[in-house]
Task: structure prediction
Amino acid sequence: MTQAEIKLCSLLLQEHFGEIVEKIGVHLIRTGSQPLRVIAHDTGTSLDQVKKALCVLIQHNLVIYQVHKRGVVEYEAQCSRVLRMLRYPRYIYTAKTLYSDTGELIVEELLLNGKMTMSAVVKKVADRLTETMEDGKTMDYAEVSNTFMRLADTHFVQRCPWVPATENSDPGPLPPAPILVISEKDMYLVPKLSLIGKGKRRRSSDEDATGEPKAKRSKHSTDNKEPIPDDGIYWQANLDRFHQHFRDQAIVSAVANRMDQFTFQTQTSSEIVRTMLRMSEITTPSAAPFTQPLSSNEIFRSLPVGYNISKQVLDQYLTLLADDPLEFVGKSGDSGGGMYVINLHKALGSLATATLESVVQERFGSRCARIFRLVLQKKHLEQKQVEDFAMIPAKEAKDMLYKMLSGNFISLQEIPKTPDHAPSRTFYLYTVNILSAARMLLHRCYKSIANLIERRQFETKENKRLLEKSQRVEAIIASMQATGAEEAQLQEIEEMITAPERQQLETLKRNVNKLDASEIQVDETIFLLESYIESTMKRQ
Amino acid sequence: MAGNKGRGRAAYTFNIEAVGFSRGEKLPDVVLKPPPLFPDTDYKPVPLKAGEGEDYMLALKQELRETMKRMPYYIETPEEKQDIERYSKRYMKVYKEEWIPDWRRLPREMMPRKKCKKGPKSEKAKDTSKGVSLTNTADVLKKIEELEKRGDGEKSDEENEEKEGGKEKSKEGDEEDDDDAAEQEEYDEEEQEEENDYINSYFEDGDDFGADSDDNMDEATY
Result:
């Protein structure tokens, strides 16, 4: 794990779980797999604290344990999973766009708690939704359960590995840690529960119009003692499925940007690609380099209902997409009107390359970007050739090439003419190695986010006193409004915050918003680069 | 064979043309320090994406940050005692829900151990033994302490149990037993240390010196 990643993990853990968990987590990330006592000894924290921290980390799927020989249990941290915490808002927002508020809250609860049983999720989400509804209305458990089942069917939530049910005849000593099993076919199996009930408001349910508040209240207090029907079956959010969705979104918008500007009928090509991706969602594993071949007839049948394009037009579009130099869509056969695949690996490669080009352009200027694209296209070029092809004067071209070289976007390839590698008789060619440039950029992204988080924390700490004061004033105003105060009194309280202080608060809010928004966007770049690197490594 | 071709004149070992400089041209200055920490950029960054989705995600992010701090998973660092105890602090405490993990899914060593001394029964139960005791120095030290205590006689019954439990450790109970044994040992030692300044038994069990003072622990042994 690089230093940048470790630093970022440390900041994320500290923000979300506090310093003790951060200390343990970072120690595990740095040193790898370790048993409990060694962790306590090396970090200098008490055993009790270490246990608590590890429980929290295991609950959130950030640390896994393994039993080694002699009964020693070792704990290992998953650094990449810690970095996913940056992407939580994106997961929740995606769930909202696909399954509306109910889905959004389900995914949010699962992400905040790591793992939960289905009944617990349904109850909590129903309560939260009821809070936001108008007085007298409540959210039914059945509706929430339905949404949960739909999420499970489309693989957005999955079951956690579970403890196998052992026969009780075995009286031997218990193992030091349960071995959790998981089977592919059971991973999305929703237990048959009959969850009956409605959400409850947090305040007294006396105003509840249903007329059974007392009965509900007493049942609620005994709820904790009732056996939970799906005890032991825990669910977690399936991040890989979300990633697959993001990848599909990226490909569709890339096609839309490229092809749909020039057609009259907006977004036809992107719709076609979207349909193809949707059809391949379940059939193609997420790491595959290309989707299963789909025939043109199948695609025609699966187009969304509103689209009235004729078969010939569809065929024309498909041919156009297949001939495009970007090679997102490829033709793999002629049966069934033409078999087409989507080249996932190539698509990710193009997206990563586009990111690199854009970074070069924004950092060094458009002439540098021209040189960069030139070297990308021609693969290997000599200094002289670069000047000629790019039509840029020698001095400037040289300067730009060296700037990019020192930024590690471009590298030099030596080709010796003689076996003694004499420099005067060696070719030096400029080339772009996309994989290593992508890795360099990814590393830089991690550093950027760490810087953004630190700056945000600094800004907040600087103005801590002012923030606390404004919170107190707001609390006072809220309580006064609740008890019905006059306008004049409210005015007076509001004036406790002076105008320059208000100004300062405004500036602080604007800065913090900007920093937060930047974090979210850098994370999008991280996603693209990581997907590309992962896809490339899998193919090797 | 190498020899200075130009007799002391500077000459490049490689073809300078290939890298792009023409002969006789002034080469750029050598950089003698690391690049500046906050360099001036010629090109200002592009403005951030703005839109409904981005705004929603921003609000979500800030809300999540606040929510996480109130969840039971956020473990507060124990604060140092302040010099003056503020009255308002009592009323500003945020009451968090207690979270109990599902112990069936976690290794057995995760369960918090109670500090009370265990009765002899439970010690015996742990004696099912397969154990291979681990050879780390902590264990050896504890064994020595236990042997010392045994020599002193007081509470010998329980300590015998503990020792048994300590020696024949079952595989999984290793850390737990150590913990208990350590806590109880420390407790005993502190109690005894308060009474006198000297180490209780300087000699190991079996020596003639120590044997005499077995009965009376209060006196220091030399």
